[in-house]
Every structure is written in C-alpha cells, then in structure tokens.
Amino acid sequence: MSWVRALKEAARSGLRIERKRLDPLLAVRGATGLALVIAASLWLFGPVVAASSAFGAFQAAIATFQRSWRPRPELALVSGTSLAVSTFVGYLTVSRLPLFLVLLAVWTFLAGLFWAAGPTAGLIASSNVAIMLVTVTLPASVAQAAEHAAMMIVGGLVQAALVMLFPVRPWGAHRDALADALAAEADYARRLRDDPVAPFDPLPLMEARDAAALTPRQARRRPAQLHGTRGLAERLRPVLASLADPAVGVPREGRARERVRELLGAAADILDAAAGAIRHGTPLDLPAHAVAALRTPDTEAILTGPVYRTSERLRTLLQDVLETAGATRQEETAVAGGSPPRYRERPDLLRMVPTVLRTLRAELRPGSPVARHAARVAVVAAVGYLLGDVLPFGHGYWAPLAAVMIMRPDFSQTYSRAVGRFCGTLVGVALATGVVRLGPADPLLSGALAVLAAALMYTVRRTGQIAAQACIAAYVVFLLGMAGEQWTQTVPERVLLTLLGGVLAMLAYAAYPAWETPRLRGRLADWLTAQGRYAAAVIRHYAEPVGKYAPDVREAILRARTARAAWHTAVDRARSEPVRHRGLSRAAADGAEEALAETGRVAMLLEAHLPERGAAPVPAAARFADALRSATEQGAKAVRERRRPSWDALREVLRDWDAERAAAGDDACGALAHQGAGLVLTALEDLSEALEPDASRNCGDSTPR
C-alpha cells in the first residue's frame, strides 16, 4: 500500500463514527462519581484542587470501562493511585526543565512498555502520563501537590465504591465471552452442513479462556451458568468437525449425510439457545424441533461405527451444555456448599507485579515492537514538551499530551488517532468555547458543564475517535475554566499545540517505525512450529494411548492458537502499512495460511478419535510424530530464511509406515492415524507450494490481504 493510500485509509478510520451499543447506565455511574468528587473538592479545597481531583475521577472511570477480566474496582484504584504518584513526582521536578525532561522521558518510556502487559495497562499508563502533564501545573507548593495527589486517590476510591455499590451487569463481559464461544460453535456447526471441511476461528474460545481466569473473590461470586461450560465448548469443537468430515465420517451424499446435516443443524440451534440464556441470564428456551432431531430413534440404523459413537458423544455434550446453561442461583448455592469448583486462578494485583516486571524486561531487546514504541513515544514527549516551552503560546504541555495519547505500537492506530484527535479537538474546543463565552465565569457552572461533557464521552466512547475526542476537549476546557483559566488562554494554544503533537507522533513513526510486514515470515514460522508440535502431540498418542485426557495435547493446541492469533494480527496490521516486502506475497500468505489451517484441522479430527487407555498402540505413529516435530522446526527455519521447506524426511517415514501396514495389516485406530498422517503431509506440501520463490516473485502486491 502506498503512503498516500495508507494515510487516506488512516484518516477515514479516525473520522469514522460507528453504530455501537451504548451503555447509558455506565455513563451515569461514572459521571455521578465525577460530580461527587468535584462537588466535595470545591466545597473543601476550592476550584484548583477540584480540577485535579476531577482528572483523577475521570481517568478512574475510563479505566473501569476497559475490556478487562479483572474486577473493576481494582482498575479504578490502580488508575487513581498511579496518577497521584505521577502528579506528585512530576511536580517536584517541573520547575527544573532539564530534570523534568529526563523524568518525562523515563516515565513515558515505562508507560510505553506497559503495552506489553495488555491494552488496558498500556492505556492507563499512557493516560496517566498525559494527564500528569496538565495536573503538575496546578499546585503552587509541595503541600498543595500532596493535596492534589490525595484527592486523585479519592477520585479513584469514589469510582471504585460506586462500581461495588451499583454494579451494572457485573458479569456482563464474562457472560459475553462464554456466549460468544458457544455462538461460534453454533455458527461452525451450520457452516459444516454445507462445507464439511469449513475452517474454525478459535479466537472466541481464546477469549472465553481468558475470561475464565478468576480472582478468589470472583470465584466465590461467579454465577452458576459460568461454571464448566467453556470446557464443554472446547470438547464440542473436534466432535462437530469429526461428525461432518467425509474423510473420517460419512460420504458427502446419501441418507447418512442428510442425518449428519440434521444433527448439525439441531446442535447449532441448541447452542444458540444456550448462548442466549448465558448472555442475558435468562431461563433456557429450547427449540422443540432441535430437541426432536437429537432424539430421533433411527440414528443407530443410519449411522454406524465411529460416526455413530461421535453422534452419541455430541448428544452427551449438548446435554451437559443445557444443564450448565440452565443452572439457577439456588443450584449455585448448593454447589458452593460442597467442595469449591475448580477454576483458573487470576493472581491479585500484588502477585501480578513480578509477572508484569518479567514481561517488561522481556521486551527490552533489539527488534521488540513494544520497546521501539516506548523509545519513540519517550523521545516525542520530551521533544514536544521542549518545543511547547520554547514556542510563544504558553501551556506547552498540550503538544506532548496529544502525542502520548495518540501514539500506539502500530501504524494504523497512531495515524488514525492523530486525525481523529485533531478533528475532535477542533469540534470540542469550538463548542466549549461558545458555551463558555455565553455563560458567566462561575466555577460551579464550569464544573457542571465538565460533568456533562464527561457523561457524553462515557456514552459515545465506543462510536469513534472524533466523537470521544470532541467530548474530552470540551471537558478539559470546562475543567480548566473552573480552575481559573480564561478561554482565550486555552483555545488557540490547544489547537495549535495539539496539531504539533499529532505531527510529531506521525513523523516519529515514519522515522522510527515498527512495521509488521517484514516480520510476517517470522510469524508464519512460529505458527508452523506450533502447529507441527500440536499435530505431533496428537499423533504420538496413537502410539501411547492415554485416553481422552492428554495435557500435552491441550498445551500444544493453546500454543498453536496463540501463534495463529499473532499471525492474523500481523497480517491485519500489514494490510494498512505503506510497506512493500518482497519476501511474502499476498498469494503466498493466503496459501500458507490455508495450508496451516488444514494441518490444524486434521490434527483436530485425530484428537476427536484419540484411542482409549489400554488400546493397541501404533508404534509407527511415534516415529512419524518425532519426524513431524523435527521437520516442522526445520521448515520454520527455512521459512525465515526464504527457502522452500522440504518434507523428504517426513515422506520417508510415511513410506516405511506404508510398508509395515502392507506386511502386517492394521486395525481401525492405526488406519485412522495413518490416514491423518498422510493428510498432514499433504497440507505441509501445499505450504511449500504456496511459498515457492518463483510464485512469490510473480505476485505484484506483496501486502497480504
């Protein structure tokens, strides 16, 4: 993509306003906490301290709105406390420009690194640095700075208390994640009716797994409907695929195929009903036709052998889903009276500190996109503050503030946010200025207008950058007006310095980028390695039967999903980058992705038919698994070095397996393992064909779709 087209797409993204579901109750709760803090601060300390405390309460409310599985009160407390510390430390050095620039650079670099800990941590850290640039100018002494910091902590406490006292759909995000996983399974079942080898996107299952990690306090209060259903959704995935696939199931046409389509449709309807009950916390309403389809008595006469056993397994799993989705509060109490249910434990905040520090330290290496972002934003913040101090506008913090809030680790978000923030600032400042000029200069009125602007921002925050930034701009104008600044001191400088900050952010990314496009081959190699280990772990258990419970297979599939998600994220980012990379063409990327997806699908089918403990082992499967693991690791190295992966060693092992089967015969389990091994080899050969250097050179556009 050319620079002109990339900038045009980024501008469109920044100016886009989307139709999103609004959360008025959350907005009212956040605005109420803000109003309480402003009113108390005005009464006790005056308008200047009220402005600082309002920033703390405003940011704490935003923290509680972020997509996070951690309890919301914790996010509010972390946000308010970290902003208070930033403000107090910043005030101690703000009068000494060289020292403050060093502090700003270090503080901003650390905030940039926090994106490695997740988007919520990165947003809170970056927002605290940006707000600190404003709040350090408000106190007039160390004692006042301490007062301001204390009131910021109070703002976080107020927002945390309101979240606890007035919960708005407290388990909504967890319910949505689990319901989305079941809905994805339902959609998968419907697509399998028409396409027996349809792909499955595991992202909803990954989200549900993240949501299932709970703190001990959350585990004691978790609704009964959220107990155990995620594990059932995980087990449904290979069962649905195995039932539909013609390689291990029934032919593509005929009476048996029609029965399979009927079962898949019934499963989809039942899973949708369970997803709706979990999402809304309502009683389960089952479609009668779906229940009747599952209970058809002639299934055994139509489906035979492994396919019939798979259909019975599907019926059992669906029954378990229905029992869990229909759980009531009374059933939850009964469960709580016995032994506590198992759950994935999410560590508390103090126990998270060593993990976060290890994550940040791991990013301090050459080539890390997060480290490059941290260095980039630190330099821009220091340069922006220095330029703002030199220029004759006053209030030079607007330039670094805008830059810090704009910059993200990837190109498209940085540029789209720059456009959206500048245009939103123009709209917000113009509207707020008109309101201020029409009304009297009254701190109470300015505080009320600030609360109204914040409430609007909380309401429309998900609709687009320009709408949210317009509300934020108006909020800041009203808040600084409450602190005593005239509109003439704020409007011109804010517009010009915001433009300066946006230009600095875009120039910094152009001069010191962290493009995803050149790293696509590395992402693909990581996915190949993880997918090979997953398939090898599954095939090995045909030589070493341990039953359906195989922890190594579970661990391998989780790693494969993580690598797949990293690949798709890289492709999405590369799509909008103005970079041409000859190493991986669009056609090659699409073909390689399809081949690796097929490798994972075959492994999933084999996983659905893992032999029971005590079954006759298939020794050749172990040799193939070892060869597959080694071959995919060597193939990944070839992908990174832009060579064609070779599977000769794997082909030789499969040829020996063919000879053994011809001489000694094979049971059904061995035949299935051999068939799956052949399909895996075919998919890997397709990968090599997709990455053929001549094919890559013949492709014009080298950016993957």
From TrEMBL:
Keywords: Cell membrane, Membrane, Transmembrane, Transmembrane helix. Residues 84-189 form the Integral membrane protein YccS N-terminal domain. Belongs to the YccS/YhfK family. It is found in: Cell membrane. InterPro entries: Memb_transporter_dom, YccS_N. PANTHER family: MULTIDRUG RESISTANCE PROTEIN MDTO, P-HYDROXYBENZOIC ACID EFFLUX PUMP SUBUNIT-RELATED. Pfam families: FUSC-like (PF12805), FUSC_2 (PF13515). The chain crosses the membrane at residues 21-38, 99-116, 123-143, 149-168, 374-398, 418-436, 443-460, 466-483, 495-515. Residues 384-507 form the Integral membrane bound transporter domain. It is a multi-pass membrane protein. Its main location: membrane. This is FUSC family protein. It comes from the Bacteria.
